[in-house]
Design a protein that fits this description.
The chain is α/β, with parallel strands linked by helices and 492 residues long. It has 18 helices and 20 strands. The chain has helices spanning 31-40, 52-61, 73-81, 103-110, 118-127, 146-159, 174-178, 193-197, 217-220, 223-231, 246-253, 302-316, 322-330, 359-366, 386-392, 406-416, 438-453, 475-489; strands at 21-25, 44-48, 69-71, 91-94, 114-117, 136-141, 164-168, 186-190, 206-209, 238-242, 259-263, 273-276, 279-284, 287-293, 340-345, 348-352, 372-376, 396-401, 422-424, 459-462. The strands form four sheets. The chain has a six-stranded parallel β-sheet with strand order 7-8-6-9-10-11, sandwiched between helices. It has a six-stranded mixed β-sheet with strand order 15-16-20-17-18-19, with helices on both faces. A five-stranded parallel β-sheet has the order 3-2-1-4-5, sandwiched between helices.
């Protein structure tokens, strides 16, 4: 069974979980909330993780009255194969990182045991009104821009007086939001393709697909499966999508939503959002409603403007007014590591876009303007870097490559930018145990090499086009390492 052939088992009704053993796979971020929901439903949660320390952290994160059994993955495999009368489980709640073709999950499917993600669990519990009246779900997905758009959406909803909270793949898990006090009425939920794959029942009130480019193909198995997971947010009352993106536009056209809203950088289509004479604008019937000047949007540039348009479209679909959009976005500031300005040293700007974890995201920063020394590399996750390298070749002053898949980027550069200087740095990521300070030392060398290549007016851009986990804890760790390295170039 391949990833995209995985069949979901419907599973029990949410109200029928009392007394049912439920296996929670993964004791990480989504684990505690899932255990609390299951406990509240009267289920018997069992948590499986290969790391004893993670199980211990989960236990300490739970309220005193919530208890759960902790097991290793071998024991978990036994539980999904055993019948209920012999201690087997009737439900698996998986953390989103588990691939559909994982042996344990395939064994669950073969045994007829349903596999839900934490989003599916939260959605079913909320729809059944087990924790008060059902909330309004606003879902944001896309290959790039999810976090910025979700944060903008939360800001607009709060400005409009809604009891809103950004959650999901950003900050607080959705399961925690259902149990939060004071009560949250509007969920501005950033949902990844992994979360959506494991949430087949989820039908948000309003959903937006920002864009769809090659990413996580090693997990989903195909571009079609990846896009299909994203499309799940477009199955509610209102569907919003980035009309300048070919795949997102196609998903919008195929959406069953009663209202479909395209957002684009050009003048808005009827019923859509766009830009008119440098002003973000909503077009309703024959009227054009100005929201705010595009040059007041942060982060600046086309990607930030599209994120703002998408957030405005979603928020206005649930009652926010134009003045709420303008006020909220004028005060909005970009999150860390998203095309974040770090410093200017000897006339060279240093920009941290460590969040550009795939080629499509890196492309946006590379084409933002000016000549660039590009620091790239990491884990490409099955994505094809060739088209982006071909498109950005003319803006490159030089390239410094780090990370496990740097050779693939180097090969693309040799074909499409043969005259551009390229420095490849061994990164301690190719096998064997690396020293704890190896990631920082590699980044220090990368920034020093980039500074040597750059001239006044250039930008040194960290936009890796790849994930960080081969060298760094996460993209934030990578971005902080970049900022420290820039400080050393500046003599601090």
């Amino acid at each position: 069974m391949t990833q995209h052939q995985h069949q979901h088992v419907q599973g029990p009704e949410i109200r029928d979980l009392a007394g049912v053993r439920a296996l929670v796979l993964g004791a990480g971020v989504s684990g505690p909330g899932a255990v609390r929901i299951l406990h509240a439903l009267g289920a018997q949660p069992v948590v499986a993780d290969s790391r004893p320390e993670a199980l211990e952290r989960l236990r300490t994160a739970l309220p005193p009255d919530v208890d759960c059994e902790g097991v290793d993955l071998d024991r978990a495999a036994e539980l999904v194969s055993a019948p209920a009368e012999r201690g087997g489980v009737g439900l698996v709640v998986t953390s989103p990182g588990w691939r559909p073709d994982a042996p344990l999950l395939r064994a669950a499917a073969d045994s007829g045991v349903a596999v839900w993600g934490d989003i599916e669990l939260a959605w079913r519990a909320d729809r059944a009104e087990l924790f008060g009246p059902a909330r309004t779900w606003l879902a944001v997905t896309g290959t790039n821009g999810k976090t910025t758009t979700t944060s903008m959406l939360e800001a607009i909803c709060l400005e409009a007086g809604m009891a809103a909270r950004a959650c999901g793949n950003i900050g607080l898990p959705v399961t925690d939001v259902l149990l939060a006090e004071p009560r949250v009425e509007v969920l501005a939920a950033e949902l990844s393709s992994f979360q959506l794959h494991w949430a087949p029942s989820c039908r948000p009130e309003v959903g937006v697909v920002l864009n769809v480019a090659e990413d996580h193909l090693d997990w989903h198995g195909s571009m079609e499966s990846y896009a299909a997971a994203k499309a799940r947010v477009l199955t509610g009352r209102v569907a919003v999508a980035g009309a300048d993106d070919e795949v997102a536009a196609r998903l919008l056209a195929g959406s069953p939503a009663g209202t479909r809203i395209p957002v684009r950088l050009a003048a808005p289509a009827p019923g859509g959002f766009g830009v008119v004479d440098g002003v973000l604008t909503a077009r309703t019937d024959d009227d054009e409603v100005p929201l705010l000047p595009a040059d007041e949007v942060r982060p600046p540039g086309p990607a930030g403007v599209l994120d703002a348009l998408a957030a405005a479209a979603v928020a206005m679909s649930v009652g926010a007014r134009p003045e709420h959009v303008g006020t909220a976005l004028q005060g909005f500031t970009v999150g860390a590591h998203r095309a974040e300005y770090v410093d200017t040293v000897d006339g060279v700007r240093y920009v941290d876009d460590s969040k550009a974890t795939n080629p499509h995201a890196a492309r946006t920063s590379l084409l933002a303007g000016g000549t660039t020394v590009w620091i790239a590399g990491g884990l490409l996750k099955g994505a094809d870097v060739e088209p982006v390298v071909a498109e950005v070749a003319d803006v490159l002053r030089g390239v410094v490559l780090i990370g496990r898949d740097r050779d693939r980027i180097a090969e693309a550069l040799s074909r499409h930018a043969p005259t551009v200087p390229v420095v490849e740095l061994p990164s301690g990521d190719d096998g064997g145990a690396a020293a704890p300070d190896e990631p920082q030392r590699t980044m220090d060398r990368a920034v020093a090499e980039a500074a040597r290549m750059a001239t006044g007016g250039d930008t040194v851009l960290l936009a890796p086009a790849a994930a960080s986990m081969d060298m760094f804890t996460d993209y934030g760790h990578r971005g902080r390492s970049f900022a420290l390295a820039v400080g050393r170039v500046a003599g601090r």
